[in-house]
Structure formats: structure tokens, C-alpha cells
User: What shape does this take?
Amino acid sequence: MPEGHGIWPAIWMMPEDMEKYTGWPACGEIDIMELIGHQPGTVYGTLHYGMPHTYTGENYTLPEAKKFSDDFHVFTLDWEPGEFRWYVDDILYARRTEWFSKALESEEQQPGFAPFDREFYLQLNLAVGGKWPGYPDETTQFPQRMTVDYIKVYERVDK
Assistant: This one.
């Protein structure tokens, strides 16, 4: 993982049909891994949903002041109906079983597992700057690189 003030690598997912639940954030967003460059030993896993915008998640910090830039790590999200589980290197660090979605003009929540009840697409990016990480400063080194060794996607098959 890259590091430094203002550096923001992420692995995340958005729905293919963002307008189904009246757009973002009610349509849902799944952050599998986000790292804020000035916290190089910590990653975040988060769900965004609902109206008003609500987000819930946790973070994981490597032991012994290690940094994610020191070595490769495996980031895993298990997504099942009614539950999300986040892992770093097979260590479970977050679990979510509650969320909601509703339209702006409605007081009623959408039924079922909305908004996480349909297909999402995967994104990997390395952003520079932004409200959360701040902007690069004189200590930030360039160029930066997010190196990905592999991506695996599995679909659960019920028997």
C-alpha cells in the first residue's frame, strides 16, 4: 500500500443501478479497504447507506507499529444476505448485520436487505487528496503505487 499525507488507496464497491433507491447514499456503498496515508498501519471497512446518509464500520491496525506498505496483505469481505464480515490476513475485525435504505420523500424503509440486495461492481483506486485524508504536503513522496497481486471473487452456491 502507498502511504503519506493525502494518499488514499481503496478497494470498494458500488451498485450497478445507483438510482434504484434514489441515488447515493441510499443506493449503498461497500468499502472493503480504505487506507488514509498518514495512518499507514490502519485500514477501514465501511458500509454507506440510508437517507439521511449513515455509515458504519470498523478499522484494523497492524500490531507492533507495522505499516501496510511493508508487505502484501489479504483484504477479504464476506458478503451474505443479512451480514458483512471484513478480514485482514484472515483476522476478522468487523461484522455488520444492520443497515437500512429509504427514499428521501418516504418515511418507510425499503423491504428486505436493501440496498445490498443486488449486484455491485468492484473498484480499486489510489486517490490523492480529499476531505478525509487531507492533501499532500512537503512530506508526501511521489510517485505512489498501489500494487495488487491478485483479486478473487466467489459466489456462494446454496445446495
